[in-house]
Structure formats: structure tokens, C-alpha cells
Amino acid sequence: MSKVDLKEIAKQEEELTGGHRLCSGCGASIIVRQVMRATEDPVVVGIATGCLEVSTTIYPYTAWKGSFIHNAFENVAATISGAESAFRSLKRQGKLEGDTKFLAIGGDGGTYDIGFQSLSGALERGHDMVYLCYDNGAYMNTGIQRSSATPRNASTSTSPDGEVIPGKQQFKKELTDIVAAHNIPYVAQASPHNFRDLIKKARKAFEVEGPAFLNVLAQCPRGWRHPEGEGLDILRAATDTCFWPLFEVENGEWKLNYIPREKAPITDWLKPQGRFKHLFKDKNKYLIDEIQEHVDQRWETLLHRTGEK
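Above: the chain's sequence. Below: its structure in C-alpha cell form.
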């Protein structure tokens, strides 16, 4: 895999323009810009209904320069798999030439939950496409409701912190592992604060034959309740605490891409976010211990799975 050359990347034309209406500090546009710079081929993009779609395609305007398909919440993987199939058919018939990439994008609501059935089906069928999930940990577009990607004990509009229940009761679903169980050529977990790692992974995803999946942590200042300029620092804390490990699975082989020299305590990730502020009350501090134990167990599992221990 070639080195990520920032000078060359900077020369590429933006596929997502400025002037869209995503919130200041949103991680979704940062992620999309990094991923789209990983290929020079034309890209057909489909996006499930969500923050990214509604903020970049407000009728009659669009922030997308290339081919774009708006999809319902649940079916972006099915739509892009159909477009990819049509392209292959037309190419066999000699009606199209050249290479085109196919990229489906969904938030965690449209990927972990509502869109998982169509995603699983597209992966099982083996379509030559990339699926990108920008995971901001809730249904942010419709009011910050909890999703299966929401971390345990996070306070959301449908799992609020209260006297009886201190936020969401379940741990986050490990979707990257579930996708890897489909035995597709390439699966990766990444974060935009480490742009070289993300762009390298996106290149691999675009280059493999068959389906590829990228799960990327995306900050949300409104839902996470942090100052808009602190997002990348909080994402860095997610990897340093091993809450969000950076790893990839190539043809069934698991590999860790980042091992912190000194694993930071989970409080470094939790404390900057207002959605977790109730955990720092004296009566709730045991919950932090439970989260730390879960993160530690998950990290140990990954160390063994990747042969690092």
C-alpha cells in the first residue's frame, strides 16, 4: 500500500463542496472528504437518510459534484448493490468503459439498526462496493435518540439520565466484528483524527474486488455535548483509551493498527462529553468502573485475536 502523500492528496478536487448545512464541528464531512480522496476513479455515492444526506442535499441544492443517489433510511446498501450490478452488466455489453467505484454511506442508525438487513444481504451477495458507516452513536438527525451504537450509560433523548436509570443500559454493538463474520475481503475500523490510517484503509477498500466495509467514529458536538472545536481531541481519546480500537480484517486476518504506548483511562474519553456528565456524580462512579472493565475485556480480546498477545 502506497504512502499517503499529503501534497498529492491536496491537489485532488473536492467531491463534497463547502456551503452545506452540517453543524460546525460535525465529523461526517471530515470523514467523507478523507475517504473520497482515497480514489481517483469516478464514484457513485448513495446515502441513507440522516444528518449527512439532509444537510448536503437540501432541495433544490446539492453539495455533491458527482453521481449521487438519495436513499431511504433502510436501503442504501441495496440501492448501491443494484447500481453496481447494472454497471457490470452494461460493461459486459460494451456500453460502458473505464472503472467506477460504488460507495454506500449511512450513519449508525441507518447501518447498525434500520439498514442492517440490506447491508448484510449486499455483503453476502458479494457486490463490488464500499460501505462507509459514520458512527456518531445515536439518531442525531431526528433528535438524538439512542441507537445500538450508543455507548452504555450515555444520556440521549430516549435514554435520559434519571433518578432510576442512568442513561442507556446496554453496551454498544460491535458491528465491525459482525460485518467481519460475513467473510468479505476487507473490513476496517478507523477515526478521522488519524487521517493517514483512514485514507490508507479507504484505498484498500476501494481497491479490493468484492465488498468492503469501513466503520468510522464521527464526533457530534450536539449529541455528545462538547465544544465544536474539541471533536478530534475526543476522537483521539477514544483510541488512546481503547474504547474505539483501530484495526482491520483482510481476507480473514485481523490486524491492530494502533497500540497506545500507555493505555489511557476511560475517563479521558468520557469526561469531555456532556452526555456522560452524570457518571461523575459520587453515586454513579461505579458505572465508570463497569465501562472500564468492559473496554479492558474488549481490548484483551482484540490483542489475542490479532496475535499481539
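The two ends are 26 Å apart (CA to CA).
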